[in-house]
């Protein structure tokens, strides 16, 4: 921690030399005073003569004032010119209450015609210029979705993403998944949220939806810009600014299953500064379902009825706290998150019902896999002539607890006590004492710090605009400490491992990378976007990783409202530190694991039918994956290896409609495996992933007016084809003598409907959502041994007060 603060102090001293000069602020204020008293030409001249020398922050406000001046002079063309510059400078600009109506209307109209994102190329660009297929989830789409968490949003709006079950909330992209969500890079304002130890970031209640301005999803490999973990997709969560919030709100939501959620957002902004803070807390018992030994939900060796929890996040609630702060060219981000999902069955030995509430608290948590992560960064951005540069220092701390239950009751032949050499208690004593309430807890803490520097240079090639991006990143990761304990009788601690028998080796890893990207027009209709990134990693055991990640894309603008994209990209995700540094026998071979790789070829056709208010997007893709991590239980040594391969192709499409009174969104996807090896497959299908997926939402403004408020009912539906989910694990039992083996087990097709409404009146806003409207009993498989039951009919009601 001391090194981090010294590092930050040094950086602040460095960036302090580039502090904003007071002269440009004074110039802007003079122009603003001229505008207020009607001297529009004086304001225009003052700004136009000096705008090239303004900082990024002041330039944004200058574009706004220039547009306002030209609007007052009824010169709409010139006003639109500066609004376009403003939106390019700040794609997320939102009008304030003090802005004139004509200006606000022009901003909104131009936004609809030129929606911009920054994630795909690390520069502002329209959706049709993005080098890969992109899904943009706006604040309005979030409100009309009824989504309770990030996974709900991604599954509803992003083609190719589907739910898979496991010890944490998890999703797959194009059928690629693992025991936790570690194949998709999730970021907050460009800051990585994924763990360095496990690569995972659960898309659950650790992420508040109230703070989000929009979510930019790159549907495909993105290692050419973002390196490790960006294997199948990138999800960049963009927060609201203080100016956009311009006040605050507090919210309370309640639902069945003892569900409660509270939240608050506050924000303000001025000419030189902007501040936004948020807080969200979520707790739910989950659906508590009684299970008899004859029920389909029953699993276990010992035939004893009991209860299971579905969708529980409790005892220690999930939370998301943070703030953003900007002052001139300086920006600060701070965020701390926590979540832990309650598993329906115990996760070690034989899956079965267990008495969740009986087990003791360990480090403040009950059984489950919990992760607390804190993220911080400070950045400085400035522009010199045609160069726009940014330097960012970042710091991440993580504390994780894997609290796994072995079973409420353990048969004599299954009792054991894993113990290393030299411990006080011998493993043989496990036969006598580990008879019931057996559990194990593995916990660790780690931290990461580093620097990222990027620069953009704008120039022309044969009179056509071009942009060159150059960047480098240095990252230092340290597994600080870890511990393992074993207990029984729900409460006793039998053994805490000594340091020499630690389950994870402590160590340090260094990652150095450099990347470049060129984007240029080739003629009037063609755009080239190509990039490459090189990553060098020195692992804790001195093994080296060298990853080369190229991307090339051509965008052909058929018309202003129609484009065709062809792209190729290579991406990778390094094997998790948790696998590579484990000393547990079940992870043997982990230290030899290499990175998983993916090559993707995509053909994307998108456009707009303006007379029908329709937007469409069709994408055909081919993915080839190799070096996939494979766990072979038939081996005694090297159970983990990079032996997996997967080749598949698919088609996905999106159709959206937007009018003054209604919104509709429909997405579908179909995929088929060409061939694969040492991957979870049945015939030409990926296990636990439907070959066909369809989801959609519709909302209609039933009421709209100042005196009666706004009422927007909504409905969404998710349709999935059948899924292959073989029951073949030797630990699956329904009774002591009934080892279950059904290799051709299939989860039936399903359609789940959710229904709700949002109502807003003055400073108050309420929403109600009813989920799984028809109380469908359904299951979902994944990295667990068997498909898990999902929540039946449930509801959530929310009230918000804005100030």
Automatic annotation (TrEMBL):
It is a multi-pass membrane protein. InterPro entries: Beta-barrel_TonB, Beta-barrel_TonB_sf, Plug_dom, Plug_dom_sf, TonB-dep_rcpt-like, TPR-like_helical_dom_sf. Residues 127-232 form the TonB-dependent receptor plug domain. This is TonB-dependent receptor. It is found in: Cell outer membrane. One of its GO terms (cellular component) is cell outer membrane. GO terms for molecular function: siderophore uptake transmembrane transporter activity. SUPFAM superfamilies: Porins, TPR-like. Belongs to the TonB-dependent receptor family.
